[in-house]
Amino acid sequence: MTKREISEIKALLQSPKKIVIVPHKNPDGDAMGSSLGLYHYLKLFNHHISVITPNDYPNFLKWLPGDELVIKYDNNKAAADELIINADIIFTLDFNALHRTGNMETILTEADGIKILIDHHQQPDNYAKYIYSDVTICSTAQMIYHFIDMLGDLKLLNSNISTCLYTGIMTDTGSFRFRSTTSTTHHVVANLIDNGADNAQIHNNVYDTNSYNRLQLLGRALNNLNFIEELNTAYIILSQKELNKYNFQKGDTEGVVNYALSLKGVKFAVIFIENQKESIIKISLRSKGNFDVNTFARQHFNGGGHTNAAGGRSELSLKKTVEKFISILPTYKNDLKS
Ligand code: 5GP
Ligand code: MN
């Protein structure tokens, strides 16, 4: 973002505005942490702010400060459309293309409000007036911190802002262990702790609130682990029947793919999750090193994301989706073996 753009945004925020903040569909920790972190920052001024998510998000995020104010588009469409159409400013966070908001795409495309995109995914679309895109930053939450810094307002960090941003950074870095975690990330996080983020409590709230069923489902997933040793690839399949057996709740499969990636030597890990309601197979892809799952997901599974973490979907059956995957794999033999 240029200095001129920052001063334009600063001028824009000088007087009370109607603001809408939107993260991607199926919001994760970074989507919610960055949205609510920005909310608490803007709240310090006299704006009218709404956080509107395309749909619901996991229970392990429902303790975030401001959670009770979040409007879910899929069951409040009329009221949300009104807020979006009347908004002076629309922040779109943690996604790179409006279709990532699912059913909100149409209304967001139509809305006249000034759009500000803040995101760390590859290849952002050009729908926003102001674009702060940086694929080298680990999380959108860290970008919100830098955004507040660019606006000269780090002195305004409070415990609500810090708690939300810490949560986004923590979840998108796999608790500060992915390659995207830099010394800057640690400096940012240190400052968030100094300004009221209770790090041990946040870890507990997000990671140590599992239901018994969720852990049983994880056990099932680990039993379903397949390992293609010669291609350094591991994958997990979860059918709708298995999800039902363990009373699947949103978020229960979050992070499961990382167990496949933790197998010694594995460079490429995938989980296929059947979603009968949407008639799709949701696919999460992870890699170590240079194997680019963003490109893989874009080319074969209608998705995208980052080099080492991406998502996608398939409209084939579960069985056919996995067969397709297995048939494609050998063409990547050189990348996966080296
Ligand atoms: P996950 O596998 O956890 O759903 O997503 C991994 C990463 O890829 C996240 O950063 C997520 O935002 C992104 N992602 C997931 N699904 C899609 C998709 O369908 N399209 C694009 N462009 N990115 C995705
Ligand atoms: Mn993110």
Characterize the structure shown.
With about 350 residues, the chain is α/β, with parallel strands linked by helices. It contains 14 helices and twelve strands. It has a six-stranded parallel sheet with strand order 3-2-1-4-5-6, sandwiched between helices. Helix 5 (about 140-150) packs across helix 6 and helix 6 crosses helix 8. The longest helix is centred in the N-terminal third of the chain and has 14 residues, at about 30-40. Guanosine-5'-monophosphate (5GP) binds near residues 100, 303, 304, 309 and 311.
Search tags:
338 residues, alpha/beta, inorganic pyrophosphatase (n-terminal core), Diaminopimelate Epimerase, Chain A, domain 1, 6-stranded parallel β-sheet, 6-stranded mixed β-sheet, 12 strands, binds guanosine-5'-monophosphate, binds manganese (II) ion
Termini Cα gap: 37 Å
Main CATH class of the largest domain: Alpha Beta
Low-confidence stretches: none
Q: Calculate the mean pLDDT score and round it.
A: 97
Query: Globular, elongated, flat, extended or rod-shaped: what is the shape?
Result: globular
- Topology pattern, helix = H, strand = E: HEHEEHEHEEHHHHHEEHHEEHEEHH
Q: Bound compounds, please?
A: guanosine-5'-monophosphate, manganese (II) ion
Structural class: alpha/beta
CATH topology of the largest domain: inorganic pyrophosphatase (n-terminal core)
Gyration radius (Cα, Å) is: 20 Å
Largest sheet: 6 strands, parallel
The named CATH superfamily of the largest domain: inorganic pyrophosphatase (n-terminal core)
Instruction: Tally the structural domains.
Output: 2
Please state roughly what percent of the residues sit in beta strands, choosing from under 5%, 5-15%, 15-25%, 25-35%, 35-45% or over 45%.
15-25%
Side-by-side strand order of the widest sheet: 3-2-1-4-5-6
Assign the CATH architecture of the largest domain.
Alpha-Beta Complex
Question: Tally the helices: what do you get?
Answer: 14
Which percent range fits the helix content?
25-40%
Q: Quick one: how many beta strands?
A: 12
Domain DDH: 18-169
Domain DHHA1: 245-325
Organism: Pontimicrobium aquaticum
GO molecular function, one term: nucleic acid binding
